[in-house]
Predict the 3D structure of the following.
Amino acid sequence: MDAGIVRPGTGSLRPRLQSKPGQSNRVMRSSFLANRALDLAVVLFGVSVLTFLMIRLIPGDAVAIMLGANTEVTPDRVAALRSRIGLDQPVLLQYFSWLGGVLSGDLGVSLWTRRPVSQEITGHMWPTIQLTVLALIVGAGLSLPLGVLMARLRGKAWDTALRIGSVAGLTIPSFWLGIMMILALTTLAPDWQLLGYVPFSEDPLGNIAKLLLPAVALALPILANLSRLVRSAMLDALQQDYVRTARAKGLSERRILYRHALRNALIPFVTSAGIMTGYLLGGAIVVEQVFAIPGLGRLILGAIAERNYPLVQATILVVTFAFVLVNFVVDLLYVLIDPRVRL
Amino acid sequence: MAGKTPKSGKTPKLLIVAASAVILLVLVAVLAPWISPYDPLAQDILARLKGPSAEHWLGADQFGRDLLSRLIHGLRASLGISAAAVIVALLVGGTLGLVAAYYRGWTERIVMRCMDVLFAFPVILLAIGVIAMLGPGSGPTAIAIAVVYTPIFARLLRGPALVVAESDFVMNARAIGASDARIIFVHMLPNLASVLLVQTSLLLSAAILVEASLSFLGLGTQPPAPSLGTMLSEGRNVLLLSPWSAVFSGVAILILAFALNLLGDVLRDTLDPRLRGEQ
């Protein structure tokens, strides 16, 4: 898990805004948007090329390996599968026909079940999306009051305690925390059905109840990371002139903290929360296994076990595209919420 | 300023604690074959699933294998794989970041674009993709983690390297005709040592967690060989019968990742006076 590396200041997806003298706001806005859109296109193109190359870069004969997982390998079957996946065509042609399919929502058919890959993915993505969003809500939601509280606790002993606490939060493996929660709860409340998944449409409360525990396990590193970020941003904001002005006006401490300082602390917070989504998606894949949730983790691990490479490839592509787009939107949000960035 | 704690010139206590913990863990990993009480694969059927006892300090797993010995060897495997991966990522990614910062222009654009693409994948997902290609095992896991961390090192080094590349001594070195390679590795690199030290420590901590996740998913070190993630996954299967394996392997992962992260964290404050007290 990569929670440890996403830190304040390394949020590289933050928009680079430099106002040049003589440039009107409108010109800046459109050139900023054009730049970001170009970045997005380049990254999506690169991701698609790399994901496409996945099957082609497998050492040895990928087709024979795939077949070997399920049936006897005969030259006929190899040839048949090769042409079914299109591996017998020139690479460039393969890429463009694959990309054409992807862009029109056709991700191919699963090797063994012959079901459309897009159906396999949509059938497994909701638990993962729900878990990710729930963890983000829990982690980001709690980190604001926690970060503000941490900013108020000053002094050497507090600093050390907070530092150790946040490093611990960052480094507790979510999947282990999940296992320990299961262990504790099966001892304390043996009747509670902890594992599995109920679709939201069938039982909304049961759905949330089952996802809450894994979401909390998943959210802890986010909570540690974001609350620390909020704390340092708050400390920074509290030294600014406008806070001194607010104090001089005689505003209450509470109002100063939440209304003046926190608003500014929110800006790096939003960018980081966006980057966190990627961590959460990855973490969700692991935590799903602990709580027996039939999400994308189960799909991709099952696909790897039966060497269903096209399915692995498609899942990685879809999730990564989603992640890149989320970050793109967060970048644009960043510009919207910071009034100092006049576009 | 209000947000700063004054620090005296002496080494912070936390730094000593974190550094000693890391050194101790590395020693345990290196000396594993000599200090572990049993062969990590030897089975003592009578001790199966039993908790801590005089013979087996941490108990035994479902095959009667001594948990302490497996934990020590697992630590060795996890730390070895993660360290190898981080070193490769550091060499490749770090060099790319330096080269990008030194040459600027198209070199920088192309290198950093490639890094952006790799960075766009969620970490675990990219690692899973690499392992799906290479097949499960400790070697592929190390390669997967190296691939995932290469763009991170490139990005982390490029920023500070840009500043160093602009400095007078680099210009002087160029004026007296030093070769590009010499400027990059002899003049620029030492000035980035503190950044490198801090980030390597932090990323190694994160790599430990990735390695454990991958092994937990059955993609890393393959049984019967011990690794902390595999032990956790084995322990999970017998969780309600005998929680010891799951508890201890998780604690070991936590201690390892915690010590490395704390070390990086304290080092950052100690080496970078601008950040002192801010975090």
In short: Chain B touches chain A through 61 residues (CB under 8 Å).
